[in-house]
Amino acid sequence: MIAIIDYGVGNLMNVYNALKHLDMDAIITGAKDEIDNSDAIILPGVGAFNDAMLHLKETGLDKVIIENVKKGKPILGICLGMQLLFEKSHEDGEWEGLGLLKGEIVKFKEGLKVPHMGWNELHINKVHPLVKNINEGEYVYFVHSYHLDPKFFEDVLLYTDYGVRVPAVVCRDNIIGMQFHPEKSSTTGIKLLENFKELIK
Question: How many angstroms separate the CA atoms of 108 and 62, rounded?
Fold first, then answer.
């Protein structure tokens, strides 16, 4: 069972339906016991970093997520959910994230169109089971105004080029993030979710 975290942020049904399409057992939940009893966690998210962190803290879900991940449970952060996995964001101020991975969320450099929105191609930084059967130059769908500046670029499996190398898929141990929306990214997104399914078996 995969627990899709419901904390009042994001369109959860798109993720749920994509998992169902792959015959993955999933539940949309904000309940601690259901998250504790799950085999893996998906943390989706759209909108502002600070708002999302406030929702997680108000509900106590930040602690639930951290406890589960520290026990070795796989987590997949999607879009804003990926950014929340990191230490800090500079979106309209300076805000602490979950701190599960090292790095900060920063503004795109001057002169780039923001948000970075639409289809962009992937480049392979590191071979890993999560990116099995993903080829150089495949396209996925992005929508974001800030991007990850990772402390360790070896955590980056795939990146895209948007005036700067933008981490697209990150992974360290049981912690995975995808900056784009796999559920909106056609066959490439489905392949990545299938690989996630294999990883958590």
Answer: 27
State the catalytic residues.
79, 181, 183
Rg of the chain over Cα atoms, rounded to whole angstroms, equals 15
CA separation for the pair 58, 7 (Å, rounded): 9
Average model confidence (pLDDT) across the chain? 96
Residue 9 pLDDT grade (very low, low, confident, very high; cuts 50, 70, 90): confident
Cβ–Cβ < 8 Å for 41, 65: yes
Distance CA 172, CA 176 (A): 7
Q: What's the domain count of the chain?
A: 1
CATH of the domain at 127: 3.40.50.880
Q: Which residues constitute the domain of residue 38?
A: 2-199
pLDDT band per the 50, 70, 90 thresholds, residue 76: very high
Looking at residue 10, its pLDDT comes to 72
Cβ count near 154 (within 10 Å): 11
Q: Is 130 within 8 Å of 123 (Cβ atoms)?
A: no
**Residue 143 has which token pair?**
């929508």
| Cα 102 to Cα 6: distance, rounded to the nearest angstrom | 24
Record the tokens describing residue 111, joined without a space: 């002169």
Of 111, 101, 107, 118, which Cα lies nearest the Cα of 49?
A: 107
| C-alpha triplet 90, 96, 101: angle, nearest 5° | 95
Cα–chain-centroid distance for residue 49?
13
